[in-house]
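Following up on my earlier message about iron/sulfur cluster. Here are the inputs again, as you asked, copied directly from the submission form:
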Amino acid sequence: MPREAFSQVVTAQDLLAGDVIYLAADDTWVRDLSEAEILTDKVVAQDRLISAARQTGHVVGAYLADVHPGRNGPEPVHFREAFRATGPSNHAHGKRAERRHV
Amino acid sequence: MYRYSEFDEAFLAERNAQFRAQVERRLSGALTEDEFKPLRLMNGLYLQLHAYMLRVAIPYGTLDAARMRRLALIAERWDKGYGHFTTRQNIQFNWPRLRDVPDMLDALAEVGLHAIQTSGNTIRNVTADHFAGAAADELFDPRPHAELIRQWSTDHPEFQFLGRKFKIAVTGAVADRAVTRAHDIGLQAVMRDGAPGFRVLVGGGLGRTPMIGQVIRDFLPDADLLPYLEAVVAVYNLLGRRDNKYKARIKITVHETGIDRVRALTEEEFARRRPHFAGADQALLAELRAAIAPPAFRKADSDGFHAARDSDPVFRSWTDTNLYPHRAEGYAIVSVSLKAHGATPGDATSDQMRALADLAERYGHDELRISHEQNVILPHVHLADLPAVHEVLLAHGLATANIGLISDIIACPGMDYCALATARSIPVAREIATHFHALKLEHDIGPLKIKISGCINACGHHHVGHIGILGLDRAGVENYQITLGGDGTEDAALGERAGPGFSADEIVPAIERILRAYLDLRRGPSETFLEAYRRLGLAPFRAALYPAQSVAAE
Ligand code: HEM
Ligand code: SF4
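Thanks, got it. Here's what our run produced:
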């Protein structure tokens, strides 16, 4: 099996709500993983992370997470990222509730 | 119930004002996250997987109706209409917004509740037997002592920066319902020559390196409680390791130093400190005893109770499982299950909290307890009132008759909420409960404690579950490891690992194989799972768990 190409997103938590956010290509933060910017170059990814981590006034704990590029944008690789992207499984709260409104 | 003084109220108000200013400075950018994090943790505010989480202490698990109603209000106004009761007799709110937290803390302080020392390397919320002050098998009510410890340990200047968190649990009964042997310090009531005191255990704990506490003092007169505790914590504070977070708990200190040396050092320190306790602690203890006195129990006949048992099988089944003997004639202790089949263990909605508050006020001498098993207790209910209580519980989805049975599971938040988790625990608990309920095996299996943690930190007490389940991350997939034969009572034992773990799809069938083996092997319905395990050992259960391997090995 060929080694999967490098692809990551910058993710963090919102300072006010604490919810999971992702960095989009236009430098805004989005709530939906599918809208996040996929970074395919290691150096660029580091760069994006550093500038994100500097925004301590409204984001907390920025890091790079592995993703698969999917048909509808990035998809989580690890199950922890899948839970972060979808919210808790026991109550329709957080991202699961937000989804239902769209 | 004990009421806080003006001094306490002023302290809380000032502390909350301080935190409000810290939040403002964080929002304005004057504080970075690195600066703010230790400050918020000192006030019980975590940042979890999906949101902030506020952890509020319920000292020794005791609440009254007003406080329960306040928790309901907070859940409704600033959270999502529910709260999560935990194994450490705390309540966690899973969805607060940072800006709202100071208001939440003020609302708590108005009824004497707070989140101080629910996190960080300090002495945490003191936990107690949830039947304290009510149980028939109790030597004395340990809650005055627990309150004394709470007051002493809160904001104790010497113990704000310990090597690691420090947990104290107290029981007044012989049956240990407070898991005292898995705490940094466990206190067990003892009467000697008519005087109350405690057997003191030290160095218990779960987590990465589980250990059962050892006796450091056979009998400590209760007059010496604070100086002795202070000596233990001071010795730990000096001796405990600070080079490695995983070796920083007192259990490691005791393990590495030896209990005899820790005991000798503690006695020396105790001798030094005792003269400085000039009696204020004893005056306070006397005051606390008067304030935390038993209510005025009433006399009534209980014909209605017996009639309801005869005529209503649902009521009878509930009274069979959810009552515990009370020390007062005609009374019972009611355990209200927060484990409806398929629900999240420990979650209660605001409506449910209010219903419980109403019941406590109307039928329960205004007392409520939160158990480490994540249930709510009405400690003093007259038998005559039980049919009415049961009816209200039924109407609020709180009448599940399963206390001590397979679906009465402890589960930590796991990866549904916790940032440290390696796997989920809540869905495993829900599936086990609904699966065995559907098979109608719950009552046949009888007393059984299943405890589930979502990582090695063991917040769900899996090591002391009769069946323990530990969720791990094996190469990016949830994997569940089973331990068997653990016990959190006075006969405390750590469970033995059964073998390789199971995937999320395999874990419930694996539990079923263990329990079918138990049903086949037991001497009769009166032999519990734990008794059968102790008689038979791991081998037959391992064979049931891994049929393919044992065939291969033959
Ligand atoms: C959700 C955020 C939580 C975090 C970040 C957290 C963190 C931890 C950590 C790091 C430990 C291991 C400590 C050590 O061994 O040094 C631990 C142990 C423990 N926690 Fe939690 N925990 C959380 C939630 C809970 C909950 C919800 C409960 C109650 C249901 C709980 C009860 C306990 C207990 C009983 C232990 C093991 C006893 C011991 O301290 O040895 N924790 N926790
Ligand atoms: S055991 Fe692990 S997953 Fe569960 S609450 Fe504790 S730290 Fe979180």
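One observation from looking it over: Chain A touches chain B at residues 13, 15-20, 56-57, 60-61, 77-80, 83-84, 87-91, 93-95 (CB under 8 Å). Hope that helps, and feel free to reply on this thread.
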